[in-house]
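For concreteness, we quote verbatim a single protein encoded this way:
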Amino acid sequence: MSGGTTLDDYTGRYAQRIGGMTASEIRALFAVANRPEVVSLAGGAPYTAALPLDAVGEMLKDLMSKNGAQALQYGIGQGLPELREQICELMADVGIDAAMGASPDDVVVTIGGQQALDLVSRLFLDPGDIVLAEGPTYVGALGAFQAAQAEVVHVAMDADGLIPESLEAAIAHLATQGRSAKFLYTIPTYQNPAGVTLSEERRERVLDICEREGLLVIEDDPYGRLSFGGQAPKPLRARRREGVFYLSTFSKTIAAGLRVGWILAPHAVRDKLVIATEAQILCPPHFSQYAVSTYLSTMPWREQIKTFSQLYSERRDTLLDSLADLMPPGMTWTRPDGGLFVWATLPEGLDAKAMVPRSIAARVAYVPGTGFYADGTGQRHLRLNFSFPPPDRIREGVRRLAGVIEQEMAMRAVFGSGVGNSAGSVWPGADNPGLA
């Protein structure tokens, strides 16, 4: 006799890896967060309306008239050669140049940064393998690693990014179990979701630890060019040419809808990445690659990045000022120097995930911190996005969210600690007054 029922007639037929695939908490919020009456601080969308859309339209029209037949045709699995050359020119700006082993031959164009993560997972992860990653970390990376049936072990962060001593402790703890990690996954610059940046001194220490332990580094750098005054630290890949894989994307600096990213990998690995790409998608979208290449060669893209950075800096300031003005005591948050996100910590005893329905009822959306931890911790935390909503909507969203938090605190005062659950929610540095 059956032990239960299911709405899925194919339950017994799926591959084992399906068990590691879970729905993203961000995607689950989109249906309600996109309603016009809801102020969404939840997503991570760039503000594409700031692009010179008329000029981009003319650029695409010109592309079609001159190279339409080629742009609409199949390409090669590694990506458009002209675009790979341009990518190397971009990387040279941040120190990843020919002297550091950067070559168009070793660049593989991907469908955004997410496919790059999937390809790395396919190449390096077997079921049961271990990945070290900052805690919290990018939810899309967790999805890729979990789909590969890997185990993610988090390494603690604070206001200066990943803590080297915590990395050493994680490696040592695994060694006592006779285990080791396949690689360290890190977003060292304007991290998603925390918004913090790995300090100069720590970058060298983290690289030294990984080199000493024979640990590969997967550096994800979607936000490095979106700096709010001052130069971002050089990427890890600009410091070490061996053992560091560099992933990036045009989603945040041009347009997310084009879905164009890349991997810079050692030559031998490059071949395997191309084979995996061809098996998976045959080739990345040729038209999107032509569009990005044409944009880089004909449009003032450096000035556009400055426009994005200034816009996001102003919106970051609006968010931080609104949090300072409106949030109740006990609330803390990070102060990003670039990127798209602020990581906030609720007063003791509150649970960001349990609070979501009441926040939606108050017409404001955020992402609860649990979505950024493989083990489901992070209950006291939430990620707030400032890149997409205009300043007046940001302030209104914070006002609504503050009202929800104050109601939660009042309920806890009346009914006790059962209203919220802070178990497993400690994030080093999150309760530091210097962060709020």
Summary: Residues 301-326 form the longest helix (26 residues). Residues 419-436 have pLDDT under 50 and may be disordered. The chain has two domains: 19-50+303-431, 72-298.
